[in-house]
Structure formats: C-alpha cells, structure tokens
Design brief:
2 helices; 3-stranded antiparallel β-sheet; alpha+beta
C-alpha cells in the first residue's frame, strides 16, 4: 500500500514529508552497521573492568590476546613510583589447560640472583614463571 499511496498522492505535502523522513531515518539506521562496530568496540574498551592482583611492586593484570583469540595471558606491570611499565606477558598456553588470573589461589614473588620469578599456586599444584625484565 505504501507504493500506491506514494504514487497516488505524491503531490500532497504531507506525503512528501513522510517520504523524506522515512528515507532519512532509514539512511541513519543502515549506517549503524559498518560504523557501529568501531563505536561499540570503543565503548567496550572504555567501560571494561580488568581483573588484576598486586604483588609487592608488581601488578598482574588478566588480559586476552586479541578480539578473536581469547587465550588468557597475564600482563606484568612494574610500579616505579609515578611511572608504571609493562615488562612481560605470562601465558599458560603450554599446559593442558589455559589458566587465567581468576583460577590462581595464591601468588608469591621470588627474587633470585637479580631475576624475578612468580610462583602461582593453582588448585593442587604450583607453577613458577620467570619474568623477562628486558
């Protein structure tokens, strides 16, 4: 019926206004598709709450590798006063399970011969990971 109304009463001013508003509204709504992805990704970034734990001067932050690959990694950030610097990424990908920071019960910092190790206690076993300070 829309086509019939448009063809029959196109000379009427109200039909022209309705047609114009409909075309503009549909243009705006259809532009949300390609432009909406970047907007919603930015909104997710701005409101995302990261899970993190502090161990002495280090902050361990749970993160994912990327948007598609959801392998959990732990980013190690060193606190140096006002400045924080990300120094390493720890992953548990070589194990049979991918552990995240949520699964870890206790974290201990081990300093040996000017090298830093983190000891993670997960359920019934412990795992030691070396932090590369390069």
């Amino acid at each position: 019926m829309t086509v019939v109304i448009i063809v029959k009463w196109i000379k009427k001013r109200w039909v022209q206004w309705c047609l114009g508003i409909t075309v503009i509204a549909m243009s705006i709504i259809s532009s949300f598709g390609p432009m909406g992805f970047s907007f919603f990704k930015f909104a997710e970034f701005a409101t995302e709450l990261k899970y993190e734990r502090r161990v002495e001067n280090y902050r361990l932050r749970h993160d994912d590798v990327g948007f598609i690959d959801s392998t959990p990694i732990i980013r190690v950030v060193k606190n140096m006063g006002f400045i924080e610097m990300e120094i390493d990424e720890l992953d548990f990908g070589n194990n049979t399970e991918n552990y995240s920071l949520y699964d870890i019960d206790e974290i201990r910092l081990l300093n040996e011969n000017n090298e830093v190790y983190f000891e993670f206690e997960i359920e019934d076993f412990t795992m030691t990971k070396k932090v590369n300070k390069d």
